[in-house]
Amino acid sequence: xxxxxxxxxxxxxxxxxxxxxxxxxxxxxxxxxxxxxxxxxxxxxxxxxxxxxxxxx
Length: 57
Fold this sequence. Notes:
The protein has 57 residues and is α+β, with helices and mostly antiparallel strands. The protein is built from one helix and two strands. It comes from Desmophyllum pertusum.
């Protein structure tokens, strides 16, 4: 990638204080103009939401 294109940065967030602090750290410490930011949101599936069986073909 040419330096004039900027960087692609991926940050995972999950609603926790830790992920919010990580995002803030990125903004305050390593953000550069031209960065392309990809935010990936993830949440935990609790046992009732998990499928009871996995079927394999």
